[in-house]
Design goal:
Layout (H helix, E strand, L loop, with lengths): L15 H10 L7 H7 L5 H16 L3 E5 L2 E4 L6 E8 L5 E4 L7 E3 L12 E7 L8 E9 L4 E8 L3 E5 L9 E4 L11 E8 L8 E9 L4 H11 L8 H8 L7 H4 L3 E2 L5 E5 L8 E7 L5 E8 L1 H4 L5 H9 L3 E2 L4 E2 L4 H7 L7 E11 L5 E12 L2 E4 H10 L3 E2 L10 E2 L2 H23 L9 E6 L5 E7 L3 H22 L7 E3 L5 H11 L11 H15 L5 H11 L4 E3 L23 H14 L7 H35 L6 E9 L2 E6 L5 E5 L8 E4 L4 E4 L5 E3 L3 E10 L4 E9 L2
Parallel strand pairs: 13-20, 14-21
Antiparallel strand pairs: 1-2, 3-4, 3-6, 4-5, 6-7, 8-9, 8-11, 9-10, 11-12, 14-15, 15-16, 16-19, 17-18, 19-20, 22-23, 24-25, 26-27, 28-29, 28-34, 29-30, 31-32, 32-33, 34-35
Length: 726
């Protein structure tokens, strides 16, 4: 009888990395060689001897310590362990973002160890040798970025799974039978992750809320809000509290304020606005100068600190402007009534009042609480008509009243003079190095059911710039007034642009024949302004505007003032929109406190509030963007048979992104769907190249497309390629 041959043992040269990972995952527990062998499921003598050898080598290299004879612990602080954030890709891999690394650390799928997008994690980094891209493994999830997710539920006999449309969420969520709640098969639900057991493939969760059926309008809008953790309504106790606030104008309160009710005052807002944050007053002074008042709703008078209403406003931090609705920061009784500076009503305001000379130079300034009476409400279109025609009769086509009407001569005169001063302020700002981003805004005409009937573009004109310049003036001067006193304050800051992003942008715009001057900070802003002017009205405008905005740093709130690069201001704050932004409420409170002689407040407390406000602003912006994408997909769903002319706005190895010229809707043509030739991606030319024809499809090219698929849940458009527009 022959001896049975034993299978050869696969020799493992080095267990060091695996040992370090085991010890790092159990930082407070000592391991001997047997326990490590058992964890690695190795029980042969050769492997055990190698483990003993590697343990001694690691201890000699001071990467681990021998806590007691034969037992080892990872060192408390090791040069190979870092804390940072996970940035998931759409391919189930991730990058680890940490200030200790110039280059992001790649995390393969099998090294994620239950970490999700934006989680704060501890990572073991290896491959730190020169010439090798660093890779890492998640050792511990320190803090989850989010635990609530929106998805579609698939109910089985004894359990359910929820899958999300978010490409960065690489796993579905397991729901035990007793935690399905009221959900039915195929519902869109909000789920909360409760646990992710070590040996489970998916996290365990429970259904928090049923949002409705996929594709239904209200379901999708509520899903967008829920995805970013944004509320859709106020808790009943907050509404009740707000309803009980005394919103009447009291003589005793007027006596404490500067009375501006006899000064000519009016508002200019979008035609569909309901919350009027700001009003302007105008008076010609005997010395030939002009007194211009920037009057802002005195929200902090009604919103008392420490109340449930104030807590709710702070948590929200901002109003959210979705494509078909506003989710306000404050209940309607305040946002649309008590605090809204409506025409022919007395209102409490917080004001910045300036004396300007004919060259728009500030000669005097005053800040404080006031009471005003708004004489007139204009839409931007009406004010624009006055600026363009100098006429005081608003025609029916422009009027928001539904009929033609005559504007008082003094209001026409005030509008024209303020427009003149605003143009000087704007010109001065541009000369100082401010950057002009007048990006085209996509808006939808909706029917009564919220269905899109048409698309139009919102373009900033002189009337918009008039309001903008005086709001910027107030924001800047308030920040400067406190900033020069060196007291803790809330600034709106904007860092210099990211040079790598500018270089990447240069590579793209060079294909259209444009360039950016990188010599110094001033040249970059002048160069960007010249570029914006040059592309205005051209087919590539939206693409280049978008690239320019993406190359900029993100503006945020902070107590640490570094100035505002984009506006070219040394001091800048947000003072002018307290109905819709909580930082403005805090600015009002701090300004009044300092006007009353208060000492500087605790910086750390307010920095925490700044961070929260910036985070909530980011979530609101994402929700707003998603709602526009959703409506664009919905609009295109109703135009499946129509041919559209589009511009190639992105080129990748899997296809081209195309932005339709007439409505700015963007979708993808997949490379396999272009039948006229066999196309491959050429990275150097940033183009798709036809194998037979050598035809190029590159950025800025115009092509005709048709809708192939409009996915409302994923908010994605796929196009058929029809032909090039040669």
């Amino acid at each position: 009888m022959r001896k049975r041959l034993r299978k050869p043992i696969k020799k493992e040269k080095d267990f060091s990395d695996k040992i370090l990972k085991i010890l790092a995952q159990n930082p407070n527990k000592g391991f001997n060689y047997k326990q490590i062998g058992a964890t690695l499921e190795l029980d042969d003598t050769q492997s055990r001897n190698q483990i003993i050898k590697d343990l001694k080598l690691l201890a000699a290299a001071k990467k681990i310590i021998e806590s007691e004879p034969g037992k080892y612990l990872v060192k408390a602080i090791s040069q190979d362990y870092y804390e940072g954030t996970i940035d998931m890709t759409g391919r189930k891999t991730a990058y680890f973002i940490c200030p200790d690394f110039e280059e992001d650390v790649f995390i393969p799928t099998n090294n994620l160890n239950r970490a999700l997008d934006k989680d704060k994690v501890k990572v073991y980094v290896y491959n730190r040798r020169k010439g090798k891209r660093p890779e890492g493994e998640v050792i511990e999830v320190v803090e989850r970025a989010k635990t609530d997710f929106v998805g579609v539920i698939d109910i089985q006999k004894n359990f359910a799974f929820v899958s999300t449309a978010n490409p960065k969420m690489y796993t579905d969520i397991f729901i035990p039978k007793d935690k399905i709640g009221e959900a039915e098969q195929g519902d869109v639900v909000l789920v909360h992750i409760e646990d992710w057991p070590k040996r489970a493939d998916s996290p365990f969760g429970r259904v928090e809320k049923v949002l409705g059926k996929p594709g239904e309008h209200d379901t999708e809008i509520h899903a967008i809000l829920a995805e970013y953790g944004l509320p859709s309504e106020f808790p009943i106790e907050v509404e009740t509290f707000a309803q009980k606030i005394d919103t009447t104008i009291q003589e005793s309160e007027i006596a404490k304020r500067r009375d501006m009710r006899d000064t000519l005052t009016f508002t200019i807002d979008p035609k569909d606005a309901k919350d009027f944050d700001d009003a302007l007053s105008f008076k010609k002074l005997e010395n030939g100068n002009f007194e211009i008042g920037v009057h802002i709703a005195d929200v902090s008078y009604y919103l008392e600190e420490g109340t449930i209403l104030d807590d709710e406003a702070y948590q929200r931090a901002t109003s959210v402007y979705l494509v078909d609705r506003v989710v306000p920061m404050l209940p309607e009784v305040l946002s649309n009534f008590a605090c809204s500076l409506r025409p022919q009503e007395e209102k409490y305001t917080f004001s910045a009042i300036f004396e300007l000379d004919a060259k728009a130079k500030v000669v005097n300034q005053w800040f404080g609480r006031t009471v005003i009476f708004s004489d007139q409400r204009f839409a931007y279109e009406e004010a624009q008509y006055i600026i363009e025609t100098k006429d005081n009769t608003i025609p029916i086509a422009t009027s928001i009243t539904g009929s033609s009407y005559v504007v008082a001569d003094e209001i026409v005169e005030a509008t024209l003079k303020m427009d003149e001063l605003a143009k000087i302020l704007r010109r001065n700002r541009m000369n100082e190095g401010a950057i002009s981003f007048d990006k085209v805004e996509v808006k939808f005409n909706l029917d009564q059911e919220g269905e899109p009937e048409g698309v139009y573009f919102k373009i900033a004109k002189d009337a918009n710039h008039l309001i903008e310049e005086f709001m910027l003036l107030a924001n800047r001067k308030v920040a400067e007034y406190i900033g020069k006193q060196k007291k803790t304050f809330i600034y709106r800051i904007h860092d210099e642009p990211n040079e790598d992003k500018l270089i990447a942008m240069q590579n793209v715009i060079a294909k259209f024949g444009y360039k950016i001057d990188f010599r110094n900070k001033g040249d970059i802003s002048k160069s960007l302004n010249a570029l914006m002017e040059e592309v205005s009205g051209k087919k590539e405008q939206n693409l280049i505007d978008t690239l320019a905005i993406r190359s900029m740093s993100k503006a945020k709130y902070s107590t640490d003032n570094i100035g505002h690069y984009g506006l070219a201001f040394d001091y800048y704050s947000h003072f002018t929109s307290p109905i819709r932004r909580y930082p403005d409420v805090m600015v009002h409170r701090l300004l009044q406190f300092y006007l009353d002689g208060g000492k500087s407040v605790d910086e750390e407390t307010y920095e925490t509030k700044c961070l929260h406000s910036s985070t909530m602003e980011g979530l609101a912006t994402n929700a707003e963007r998603d709602s526009i994408k959703y409506m664009q997909v919905k609009y295109m769903q109703n135009h499946q048979d129509q041919e559209f002319l589009g511009v190639i706005s992105g080129v990748t190895e899997w296809g081209i992104y195309v932005e339709i010229i007439e409505n700015k809707c963007e979708g993808m043509v997949r490379i396999r769907d272009i039948k006229e030739d066999y196309y491959t991606f050429d990275e150097k030319q940033y183009a798709l190249v036809g194998a037979t024809s050598h035809n190029l499809l590159q950025l800025g090219d115009e092509i005709y497309v048709k809708v192939k698929n409009a996915d409302l849940v994923k908010k994605q458009l796929d196009f058929h390629f029809i032909r090039s527009n040669n």
